[in-house]
Design goal:
The chain is mainly beta and 550 residues long. It is built from 1 helix and 43 strands. Among the domains are: 67 residues, no CATH class; 131 residues; 163 residues, Jelly Rolls, CATH 2.60.120. Strand 23 and strand 24 form a beta hairpin.
Length: 550
């Protein structure tokens, strides 16, 4: 080691350190102890360049604190100390002012305002660039502010308003602590010579500008809520809680309204300060909005003619709808308000039927494309599905019987001429021995075999078939309201490649085809294998749907 090192390299400081330290053996191991009367000391000196594979610690005479360099790093690192001490919830951070080129450690203590307060960036006031807690009851030593969000007020320690930034009109500009309006060209100060509005526009307090005086560049911060300073146009006392409006005497200033503002007046906010001084700023609780209606006792037109009053004049019946005569005076329409058909919060697309009931605009949320079906005299129409489908899942038969997958056809909406088209598709397989046969019937409208099976189709004789397919179509047309219908259709089979196709007409297609279909209530559609299946034979339903033409 060289003589220049003061701590980890041998030299006067290290020699003194080694003299102060001793190793004492305890029952469980070795403990390094130091002399407690003088502590760990080293004379301050100049910067020490690091050495590869060495970590160097020294007392620096320029920065007046312990510094270190690890593994010949290009930059030295200050050795930090824990500043929070015994303060629970404390957050250490670097102070806003540098001491000997280093921002020293300081603390942000846990706020006293209660839980749920946000940590905010510094507000640029008395301690710019440091973190602060939101919430609390006001500015205090713990850097706690009364609102969660603040803006910067030029020349003041703190602002307590939620604001939005708007680019200044480069030809007009704005003043801080005065009123401004938003034009298409940017923010315009109400008190400027180029202000382009006459009245009836919203005004906002400017709480921050890039510099004092008239600002025609940069962004103006306009207060939307919270507390803001506004220049006042008069000297008053006992102003707390009074409305604040735009001044009519000094453009751009705020004015205290000593009486309730009239309807349509733009309200800047309400007073926080107990007094105002002309030309000086006062605190305003900002909540910009228009003055709302009060109680209405009557309406009249521009000619002064009464249009409506809270009590019925002579000749008018209370509870009737009003109309107007040729002189524009109210008169009785002789129509009782109770007889007027009204809607109870109808949704978009609601249909009003003749008896005053409402038809929802869809069967279910997110559905569309359904036709509106009538339901007979004095009955409520309804939207109905035109295509009713069901996707079977592992629906396979190994013996004669009915498939588990079914459809439900709505009732009460079918009339003479309505048509129901039922279609299904599936696959089958046969064993290598025995004679496998196939026959199918459709059940619907409360009638078993409304499209009944005819003679069996022979699928195979002593040869196996894998993934042969079958299709069926059954058409039902309602002929009158007395549950009478005509039904017809067929079913067919083929090998997997489409060869050796065979088909059978449903049995009623060879006769009159007249069947019974119950139209007054919802009916179930099902498919049934009627042939006796041999061992090893299976029939699977893969798709099923019904198309209803109302």
């Amino acid at each position: 080691m060289t003589d220049r090192s003061r701590v980890i390299r041998r030299g006067p400081a290290l020699t003194a350190l080694l003299a102060m330290l001793s190793l004492s053996y305890l029952r469980t191991g070795m403990v390094l102890s130091a002399q407690t009367t003088s502590g760990f000391n080293a004379s301050e000196g100049s910067h020490i360049s690091g050495t590869a594979n060495f970590d160097t610690l020294w007392a620096d005479s320029t920065r007046h604190r312990w510094m270190m360099n690890n593994n010949a790093a290009s930059s030295d690192i200050p050795v930090s100390s824990w500043v929070c001490q015994l303060s629970p919830g404390c957050i250490p951070f670097s102070a806003s002012s540098a001491t000997y080129t280093i921002y020293p450690e300081t603390q942000l203590t846990f706020p006293t305002g209660g839980p749920g307060l946000p940590l905010l960036s510094g507000n640029g006031g008395t301690n710019p660039g440091v973190p602060q807690w939101g919430g609390g009851t006001g500015l205090n030593a713990n850097q706690t502010f009364a609102l969660d969000l603040q803006t910067l007020v030029t020349g003041s320690c703190c602002a307590l308003a939620l604001a939005t930034e708007v680019a200044n009109d480069t030809s007009v500009g704005t003043y801080v602590n005065q009123l401004a309006a938003i034009a298409s060209t940017g923010a315009q100060g109400v008190g400027t010579s180029g202000f382009s509005f006459s009245s009836f526009v919203p005004y906002y307090i400017v709480v921050y500008e890039p510099s004092s005086g008239l600002n025609k560049s940069g962004n103006a911060q306009l207060a939307l809520d919270g507390q803001a300073l506004c220049t006042m146009d008069s000297t008053l006392s006992s102003t707390q809680g009074l409305y604040v409006v735009a001044s009519s005497t000094t453009k751009g200033d705020c004015a205290v309204s000593t009486s309730a503002p009239s309807f349509g007046t733009w309200i800047i906010g309400t007073m926080i300060s107990s007094s105002t001084s002309v030309g000086n700023t006062s605190w305003v609780l900002v909540h910009p909005s228009y003055r709302a209606f009060g109680g209405i006792t009557g309406l009249s037109n521009a000619n002064g003619t009464s249009l409506a009053t809270t009590t019925a004049p002579s000749g008018l019946t209370s509870g009737d709808l009003a109309s107007w005569d040729s002189n524009k005076n109210a008169t009785d329409s002789n129509i009782a308000a109770a007889n007027v058909l009204t809607l109870n919060a109808p949704a978009t697309g609601t249909i009003l039927s003749g008896n005053g009931t409402q038809t929802p605009n869809a069967i279910a949320t997110g559905t569309y494309g359904f036709p509106l079906a009538s339901a007979g005299s004095s009955a409520q129409p309804s939207y109905q599905r035109q295509l009713i489908t069901s996707i079977p899942s592992s629906d396979t038969l190994t013996a004669a019987g009915t498939f588990a997958t079914t459809l439900s056809i709505p009732g009460g909406v079918l009339a003479a001429g309505s048509v129901i088209e039922i279609r299904a598709h599936g696959v089958y397989s046969t064993p290598s021995s025995g004679t496998a046969v196939f026959a199918l019937q459709i059940n619907a409208g409360g009638t078993s075999g409304i499209c009944p099976a005819s003679s069996n189709i022979t699928l195979s004789t002593s040869s196996s078939i894998s993934n042969g397919y079958w299709d069926t179509a059954c058409t039902i047309q309602i002929t009158n309201a007395a549950n009478s219908a005509i039904a017809w259709g067929q079913y067919d089979v083929a090998l997997a490649g489409g060869s050796s196709a065979q088909f059978r007409m449903f049995n009623n297609a060879t006769s009159t085809g007249v069947v019974t279909y119950t139209t007054g209530s919802a009916q179930t559609v099902s498919l049934q294998e009627t042939a006796t299946l041999i061992s090893g034979q299976s029939v699977t339903l893969q798709a099923l749907y019904a198309k209803v033409i109302y």
